[in-house]
Design brief:
homotrimer; 13% helix; UDP N-Acetylglucosamine Acyltransferase, domain 1; Udp-n-acetylmuramoylalanyl-d-glutamate--2,6- Diaminopimelate Ligase, Chain: A, domain 1; 4 helices; twelve-stranded mixed β-sheet; alpha/beta; 340 residues
C-alpha cells in the first residue's frame, strides 16, 4: 500500500479495464467485473492487488504470492499458484507500467499561483499548473496541461508541447520541446556549452548560438545538464530516457529511445542512433558516432566510433568478450607472480 | 581569523568549557578560567586560539606552533612546545569538531519571509526560519528550529524532524526525515527513480510509488540526487554523510554512518550495511549487498557483493593487494616489451 | 542563421570593425567598408557571413564554402576558394570568438523585478539586472552590470565585481569573486565542504570556516559544486573554465586558466598550477600538486603529484606512452591466450 500523503490512487479498476489497459490476455472465463484496488510487489500483494513477475529471480516468490492477480509472461504460467489469476503479457514490464499508471494517473489540476512570475507575452495552453516561484519568461509558449513546479525557470522564447512537466528548480532555456516531456527537479537544459578559445592571453568566449531540440515522450533526470548547440542544435530524440546527473554537451544528437544511465558524460558533437544504452558513469569522447542498439557497460570509456549492436566494456572499451579475456589474463599474471 | 562577513563567532570560551565540550583531558593545574577566543590552524593560531594536530604530517608544524592550546592525541605530547597547553583527546578530530562547533554555533533566528510560500495546511515547529522564495507544500510537517533557505522547495506531505536545514534551491519530495538532517544547496531528494519498460514501441513509465526515508543526523551534499523507491523505500540511515553530486537510485538502502564521497553512483536496490566508505566516483551495479565497514577506493567499479571489512580497488574491483599485483604485473609486461 | 527567439544580433559590422575586433590581417586592397551581417558555420555561411576554419577536418569543407569571408591561419590560405575573403589570424579560434561575440554582444538591461528579494543592506552597482525570484542577502555587494537571473540565490556577505552573471537557480555563499565571472544555472558555490570526524559514536561536524575566492574572467558550469575552505580558502584563479557537474572540494586551489572538463572530481586541498587541463570524469585524490600545463586525459585517476607539462592517462594514471604500452601488452596477452 502506498503512502497516501504522497500518492493519489484510483479507487479500483475492473479486470476488464486492467486487461485492456495492460494489453493482457485473460484466462478463459475470468470475470471481467472483478475489481482490483491497487498494484503491489509480489511479497506484499493481497487478494485485491495486481502484482507482476517476469525475471528469473521472481519465480520462487511467485510461487508464494498472495496477490489476486499476477502479470506474467506465458512461460511463467506454471509457477502461478492456485487461486491467483494469471494475466499473460508479451511484455510484462510494459504491462505492469501501463496498469500501475492507470491506478496512479498523472493529474494536473489547473492553477496559477500569484507567487509565480509569468511574462505578459507568454502563452499557456488550457489546464496548465504554475506553482509559486515558477518563472515563465518572455514569449514562452506552453501547450495544454503543463505542470510547472515550484521555482522552476523557463526562459524567454522556450516552447514546449502538451502534458510537459518542469520539476522544482529545473531550468530550461533556448529550447524547443515536444509533448509529454518531463524535466526532473534541478535538471538544467539549454545553457551555454563549454565553448572558448584558450591561449596564453587567457580564454575568449565562443558564443553558443544553437538550441536544444527535444522530441516527444522524453524524460531528463535530476541534476542532468544538456547544453545548447554551439552553432547547430543539441537534439534529444523521441522516447529517450536520461537518468540523473548526466552531462550532454553541445551539439550532441541522440536518436530515438536511447537510455542513458546516471552520471554518463557525452562530449560535444557525438551522434547516437536509436536505442543506444549507456550504463552508469560511461564517458564518450567528442565527435563519435554510436550505432543503433549499441550497449555500453557502466564506467566504460568510449574513444572511437561504435558499430550498431556492439556490446562494449572497459576504459578504453573493448568487446565484452575481449574485456573478459583481459581480466582473466590479468588474474593469470598475478597468480604466476605469486607462484614464482 | 575567520571572515566576519560570513561567520558569527562566540566571543570566548573558558578552558573549562572547552574541555567539557571537547571531551578533553587537561594537564594538572591548568587554569579552568583561562579564556580562548577562536580556533585556528596550527600555523596561524595565536596565544588565544585553540588548534589541533593528530596526523603525522602535523608533527613538525606542531613543534613551531604559537597557539595557546592544542588538541592532540597522547602520543603527540612530546612534540607540543613549551608554553603551549596540550589538550589530550582519545579522538582529536572529533574533539576539534566539537570545540570549533562551540565557537561557531548554528543559530537559527526565527523568521518567516512574506516572499515565501507556505501552504495553509503545513505545520511548522517553534523557531523555524523560512527565507524568501522558499516553498512549503500541502500538509508538510516540520519540527522545531528548521532552517528553510532561499528558494528551497519542500513538496506536499514531506515530514522532517527538529533542527533540519534545507539549503538554497534544494528540493525535497516524498520524504520522511528525522532530526538534524542537512540537505545542502541544490540537492534533490525524492524525485522519481529511473523506472520504465523500454521496447520497440518506445518507453512506458513505471510509476515510482515509494518514498525516501532519512534517519537522524544525516548530511546530503550539493547536487546529490536521491530517488524515491519504486515500490518500497529508499533509506538513508542515521549518521550518514553523503558528499556532492552523488547518485542514489531507487530502493537503495544505506545503513548507519556510511560515508559516500563525491560523484559516487549507487544503482537501484543496493543495500549497504553500517560504516561503509565509498571513495569518489565509485560505481555500484544494482542489487548488491555491501558488508559493514567495507572500504572502496575512489573510481572503483563494484559488480558483485562485498564482504564486511573488505578493502577494494579497481574496475572491476579486486582486493587492494590484488590490485597492486595487477599494477606491478602490467609494469613488468611493458618493461619486458621495451627490452625485447 | 540563429533563432531570433533566443538570440539578439547586431545588424552588421564592417570589415574594418571585424578586422580590429578579431585581430585579423586583411588581404591588400580589401574594402574596409564592406558589411557582414552574421557568423555561420562553414557549410551554411552565405556571402554576407563570416565563417572560420582552422582544424585539418575543415580543410575540405573550406574548399566549398560559400561564405563571404573566412577566418583562417596563414597555412590554410591555399584552400580558400576564389571569391571568399581570407581573414588571417595567428589564433583563428580566438579570432572567431571575438568576432562572434561582437555580432552577439552580452547586453544587460537594467531592471529590478519586484518579485526579487534584495536585502536592504545589499549594494548593487549601476545597471544591474535582478530577475523575479532572485535572492540577494544581507550586505551583499555587486559591481556594475551584474545579471542575477531568475531564482538565483546570493547569500549574505558575498561580493562580486562588475559584469558578473549568476544563472537561474545558481547559489553563491561565502564567496568573494572578481569581475566577469559567470556562474551557470544550477551551479553551487560556497557551501560547506565534506568535513566531519566519524567514529563508532557517529559523525561530528567539523565547521567549514573558509571562503571561496574567484578571480576575474571565470566560468563555472551548470550543476558544478565548489565547496568553501575548511579553514583557509578554496581558490579559482583568473581565466579558469570549469564545465558542468564538476566537484571542487574544500581548500582546492586552481591557478590561472585551468580547463576542467565535465564531471571531474578534485578532492580536498589539491593545488593546480596555471593552464592545467583535465578531461572529463578525471578524479584527483586529495592534497596533490599538479604542475603547470599538465594535461590529464578523460577518466584518468590521479593519485600522486604531477610534474609540469605531463601528459597522463589511465587509472591509476601513467604517461601517455606507458598507457599505450599497457594497452598493447594487454592485447598481446589475450591474443596469446587465444592461440594457446
Amino acid at each position: 500500500m502506498t503512502d497516501t500523503r504522497f500518492f493519489d490512487k484510483k479507487e479500483g479498476l475492473t479486470l476488464g479495464e486492467i486487461a485492456k489497459i495492460g494489453e493482457l490476455k485473460l484466462p478463459d472465463g475470468a470475470s471481467l467485473d472483478r475489481v482490483f484496488t491497487d498494484v503491489a510487489s509480489i511479497d506484499k500483494a493481497g487478494e485485491n492487488d495486481v502484482t507482476w513477475a517476469f525475471i528469473p529471480a521472481m519465480r520462487e516468490p511467485l510461487k508464494n504470492t498472495k496477490a489476486g492477480a499476477v502479470i506474467v509472461p506465458e512461460k511463467f504460467l506454471e509457477f502461478v499458484p492456485e487461486g491467483v489469476l494469471p494475466l499473460i503479457s508479451a511484455d510484462p514490464h510494459r504491462s505492469y507500467g501501463l496498469v500501475a499508471s492507470a491506478f496512479y494517473p498523472t493529474v494536473v489540476e489547473s492553477y496559477i499561483s500569484d507567487k509565480a512570475f509569468i511574462h505578459p507575452t507568454a502563452t499557456l495552453g488550457d489546464g496548465c499548473r504554475v506553482e509559486a516561484g515558477a518563472f515563465i519568461g518572455e514569449n514562452v509558449v506552453l501547450g495544454s496541461r503543463c505542470d510547472i513546479r515550484a521555482n522552476a525557470v523557463i526562459e524567454k522564447g522556450v516552447q514546449m508541447g502538451d502534458d510537459c512537466i518542469v520539476g522544482a528548480t529545473a531550468t530550461v532555456s533556448h529550447c524547443l520541446a515536444g509533448s509529454k516531456v518531463y524535466i526532473y527537479p534541478g535538471a538544467h537544459i539549454g545553457q551555454d556549452g563549454f565553448g572558448f578559445a584558450m591561449s596564453a592571453k587567457g580564454p575568449v568566449k565562443v558564443p553558443q548560438l544553437g538550441r536544444v531540440i527535444i522530441g516527444n515522450d522524453v524524460e531528463i533526470g535530476s541534476g542532468t545538464t544538456v547544453d545548447r548547440g554551439a552553432m547547430g542544435d543539441t537534439v534529444i530524440g523521441d522516447g529517450c530516457r536520461i537518468d540523473n546527473l548526466v552531462q550532454v554537451a553541445h551539439n550532441v544528437k541522440l536518436g530515438r529511445c536511447c537510455v542513458i544511465v546516471s552520471q554518463v558524460g557525452i562530449a560535444g558533437s557525438c551522434e547516437f542512433s536509436d536505442f543506444v544504452v549507456a550504463g552508469g558513469q560511461v564517458g564518450f569522447a567528442g565527435h563519435l558516432k554510436i550505432g543503433a542498439g549499441a550497449q555500453i557497460a557502466a564506467q566504460s570509456g568510449i574513444m572511437t566510433d561504435v558499430a550498431p549492436g556492439s556490446i562494449l566494456m572497459g576504459s578504453p572499451a573493448v568487446s565484452r568478450v575481449e574485456f573478459m579475456r583481459q581480466q582473466i589474463a590479468l588474474q593469470r599474471l598475478t597468480k604466476k607472480k605469486k607462484e614464482e
